[in-house]
Amino acid sequence: MSPAPTTPVPEGTVPSFAEYRATGDRQLRNRLIEHHRGLAEQLARRFRGRGQNPDDLEQVALLGLLKAVERFEPERGLAFTTFATPTILGELKRHFRDATWSTRVPRRIQEHVLAVSNVIGPLGQELGRPPTVAEVAKATGFSEESVLEAMEANRAYSAQSLDAPTGDRDDGDADLASRLGDLDPGHADVEHRLLIESLLGELPERERTIVRLRFWDGWTQSQIADSIGISQMHVSRILTRTLDRLRVRVEAEAGAGADLPGPT
Predict the structure, then answer these.
(1) Do domains 103-158 and 187-254 have the same CATH topology?
(2) Which residues contact 117 (CB under 8 A, 6 or more apart)?
(3) Whose CB among 12, 28, 56, 219 lies 3.0–4.6 Å from 223's, allowing a Cys bridge?
(4) d(CA 189, CA 172)
C-alpha cells in the first residue's frame, strides 16, 4: 500500500518526524539530517585527538544521525536529541572499537582501553603527575590487572609501518622489514607432523605399526604384509581405513588445509 500523499513542506521549513514516518520521503529525511547536523558534529568533536581524521569522525557521526532519524518514533514522546545522542555516540565508539585497531583485540579489552585512556589525562592533570596503576584502577573501578592489560593492549591501537626506519645509526637507512627473518618453509610441516604423531598414539598397535613402516620407514605394502603375516590386500585396506580416520581428525584439529598421503 502506497503512503498517503501529504502537502509538500516548503523549503526552509523543518519537517516533522511524523511526516517522515508517514511518507518515508528521502527529501524529508535529508532535511531532518541537515537540521540536526550540528548535534552530530558536536559529538564527533569529543573524539578528536585520538589519532583519527576529524572528517572521518564527522562522517561516522552523520551515519549515526542517519540511523537515529530512520529509527526515531515520535509517537513515543521522547525528544529526538535524547534518542539520537546515544545512537551517534554508539556509532563513534563502534568505529574506534572495530576500525582503528591494528591487531584484533577482544571487545571487553577495547572498552577497558578507552576507559583507561579517558581517565589517565584528567587524573594526571589533577595530581600534577602521571597516575599510578592503583590510582587508575580506583578511578575506573577496574582491577589493577585489568588496567595493566588495557595499557598493554593499547600498543595494538596503531601499528608501525614496516617501512619505518629503525633509528639505529649502525643500520643507516634500514627499515623494520629488513630485520624480519625469512619464513621457514618447514614450519607448517612440523606442526602437522606433531599433530599426526599425537593421533598415531591413539591407533591400535597393528595399525600404528603399519602406518609407521609405510610412511616413516618407506616399506612397500608387500614387505609389510610379509613382516606382519597378512596379505598385501589386507595391508592396503588397513592403510585406507586408517588414513581416512586420521584425515578426518587432522582436518578437525588443524583445518582443511592439512593433507595426508594416499595409501600407496
Answers:
(1) yes
(2) 50, 154
(3) 219
(4) 37
DSSP per-residue letters across 168-211: -GGGTT-BGGGGSPPP-TTHHHHHHHHHHHHHHTTS-HHHHHHH
Task: State the average pLDDT for the chain.
Answer: 75
Average pLDDT over residues 10-17: 62
C-alpha span between 238 and 263 (Å, rounded): 9
Name the grid cell of 255: 583445518
> Using one digit for the tens of pLDDT, what is the confidence trace for 47-96?
887 667 788 889 989 999 999 999 898 888 889 999 999 999 888 887 77
> Taking CA 175 as the corner, what is the angle to CA 170 and CA 180, rounded to the nearest 5 degrees?
100
Query: What architecture does CATH give domain 103-158?
Result: Orthogonal Bundle (1.10)
pLDDT at 53: 79
CATH class of 17-99: mainly alpha
Q: Mention every residue, 6+ apart, whose C-beta is less than 8 A from residue 109.
A: 149, 150, 153
Residue 36 has pLDDT above 90, yes or no: yes
Domain covering 187-254, topology? Arc Repressor Mutant, subunit A (1.10.10)
Q: Over pLDDT 90: what percentage of the chain?
A: 11
Please state, in angstroms and rounded to a whole number, the distance separating the CA atoms of residues 5 and 119: 53
Q: Which run of H or of E encompasses 225?
A: helix 221-228
**With 90 as the cut, is the pLDDT of residue 111 above it?**
no
Helix (H) or strand (E) holding 20: helix 17-23
Cα angle 165, 169, 175; round to 5: 20
Domain map (residue ranges) of the chain: 17-99, 103-158, 187-254
